[in-house]
Amino acid sequence: MTMNSLTSTWRQRRQAARTRRAIDAALARSSSPAMRDELLTLASRSTSLR
After folding, report:
1. What angle do CA 2, 3, 5 make, to 5 degrees?
2. Rounded to an integer, what distance in angstroms lies between the CA atom of residue 22 and that of residue 16?
3. Which of 8, 16, 28, 49 is deepest in the core (most CB within 10 A)?
4. CA pair distance 10, 36, nearest whole angstrom
5. pLDDT tens digits for 12-43?
6. H-state helical runs in the chain
């Protein structure tokens, strides 16, 4: 594995973790069920991109 692909894999993983944390925070703040559904859809989509 080259250093470059290692770096990009690590960056993607960090980005995914950050996205999940942001979504978790938004879910905690959000009170409307529709918004929760939307955020959960986004969460599952962002994790399946890997």
Report:
1. 70
2. 10
3. 16
4. 28
5. 889 988 988 888 888 888 778 888 888 888 87
6. 3-29, 33-48
**Are the beta carbons of 39 and 9 closer than 8 angstroms?**
no
CA distance to 15, 44, 46, per residue, from 36 (Å): 21, 12, 15
Tokens 């599952």, residue?
A: 44
Closest to 36 (Cα-Cα) out of 24, 47, 46: 24
User: Contact at 8 Å (CB) between 30 and 39?
Assistant: yes
State whether residue 50 is helix, strand or coil.
Answer: coil
Residue 47 and residue 13 in contact, taking contact as beta carbons nearer than 8 Å = no
